[in-house]
Specification:
The protein has twelve helices and eight strands. The protein is α/β, with parallel strands linked by helices and 268 residues long. The structure holds 1,4-dihydronicotinamide adenine dinucleotide and (2S)-3,4-dihydro-2H-pyrrole-2-carboxylic acid (A1CAB).
């Protein structure tokens, strides 16, 4: 079993570490790094893993997973890059940053894989997209899949699609939570107690998601089955169309994709 280090174990890094442990990865094969000592202590106590400094993690691990914010990746790589021994696989979780950015900071020949996952990894329902960067072989991709497959679904995509993936599935959970918030407010407007509205919407979201996945039907067909002629649903759909909700989603995801591009441009 390889040793995996998570550099910058914040929100997503912790999601990954906890998922690897649930999947049976041995705690002594996991390392984490953290900037704040209290955070390091918290992770060590919660998961029984070693939390070490960046240099130790770099030397001891086979897979170096970069989970710092894109804005912090340059500083981390400037520290590690020149000293990185050969034979390490670098897996980036950073939104927007192309693998070429890593290649510029790392010794020639270092394999880099770019990954975009999402927080439902916490319940083993992540959507993870994996792209080969420079020097990444089939074996490196297979190893990356081995890390992420227990956390949900994985697909391979060309790196050119990763900013779009980030906008769709990386940020996607936030859009669904936003929708749940908005629909719960609508329930309040209609006079339901908040908790009742919340429970109705959460179960409706779960049921709809399971139907989408398990029926294999097109969403239009599933929506049509709910939308009775001269019934209630079509009145709501008309309002959603009148308020440009579909157009809002197109614009929102384009804005998220553009932000990923900006992060890359700012990283230099
Ligand atoms: N939160 C999410 O849903 C997703 C996040 N991502 C990506 O994952 C990365 C992390 O995001 P979050 O976990 O949300 O951010 P976060 O801010 O919670 O975690 C980043 C952690 O890195 C630490 N850090 C920064 N520089 C460091 C250094 N030099 N050495 C050690 N630790 C250092 C920070 O103290 C922080 O705890 C980002 O690049 C983001 O684009 C990707 C997909 C989804
Ligand atoms: O908001 C962000 O930048 C990160 C990347 C995808 C989800 N969260």
């Amino acid at each position: 079993m390889r040793t995996i280090a998570v550099f910058g174990a914040g929100k997503l890094g912790e999601v990954l570490l906890s998922g690897l442990l649930r999947a049976g990865w041995s705690a002594d094969r996991l390392l984490a790094t953290a900037r704040r000592p209290e955070r390091a202590q918290e992770l060590a106590e919660r998961y029984g893993i070693k939390v070490v400094d960046n240099e130790t993690a770099m030397l001891e691990a086979d897979v170096l997973t970069v989970a710092v914010k894109p804005q912090d990746a340059g500083a981390l790589l400037a520290d590690l890059g020149p000293k990185l021994p050969a034979g390490k696989l670098v897996v980036s979780l950073c939104a927007g940053l192309p693998t070429a950015f890593f290649a510029r900071h790392l010794p020639e020949g270092t394999p880099v894989v770019r990954v975009m996952t999402n927080t439902p990894a916490l319940v083993d329902e992540a959507m993870t997209a994996i792209s080969a960067g420079p020097h990444a072989t089939a074996e490196h991709l297979a190893l990356t899949e081995e890390m992420f497959r227990p956390l949900g679904r994985t697909i391979r995509v060309p790196e050119s699609q990763q900013d779009a993936v980030t906008a769709l599935s990386g940020s996607g959970p936030a859009y669904f939570y936003f929708l749940v918030e908005a629909m719960t407010d609508a329930g309040i407007l209609l006079g339901l107690p908040r908790q009742v509205a919340h429970d109705l919407i959460v179960q409706t979201a779960i049921g709809s998601a399971v139907m989408l996945r398990e029926s294999g039907e097109h969403p239009v067909k599933l929506r049509e089955a709910v939308t009775s002629p001269a019934g209630t649903t079509i009145n709501a759909i008309r309002e959603l169309e009148n308020h440009g909700v579909r157009a809002a989603f197109l614009a929102a995801l384009e804005a998220a994709r553009d932000r990923a591009r900006e992060l890359a441009a700012q990283s230099g």
